[in-house]
Here is the input.
Amino acid sequence: MEGSDRAAPAGHALASGHAGLVRAFFARRCASPEDAEDLAQEVFCAVIRGASRFRGDSTEATWIFAICRHAWSSWLRAKEREARIALAAMTEAAAGQKGGDDPAGDGDPLQGLGLDLSAALEALGPAERRLYSLYYREDRRVREIAAILGKPEGTVKYLLSRLRDRIRRELG
Here is the structure.
């Protein structure tokens, strides 16, 4: 029996033994139950595939939650990329509809799409507007924003995620 064949039952046991905790980890973080379940399944697969690499230097739960944190941060990075691409596409579409008559870019880039970004931004608090400006208007990286705000990068990523959710709600 190969090493990976022996690891599969152990991996299944590890995954099933911690399934409730893994699901709870993602349920607390994801707005969508479907996303939470997808992430949990991703972790279960990673645990099963990687069971042979578990050396016992930490508890099983610590090892599994490290996998959870990695899956969560990867998912957040993917969502951040998707949001930036979507915002860029909407901005380009709006600029095309406006005929490029705002070369300074001072106006609402989404105005031509019927989205009132200005009103959505007005509903934000000063800290959220500053974060929006740094990330979307000044096109600064998370690391730069973290340094400017004096916050850890993970906190900035979390705040950006909350900001995007809030803008989506405001835009309806």
Summary: The domain at 77-171 is CATH 1.10.10.10 (Arc Repressor Mutant, subunit A). Residues 95 and 105 are 9 Å apart (CA to CA).
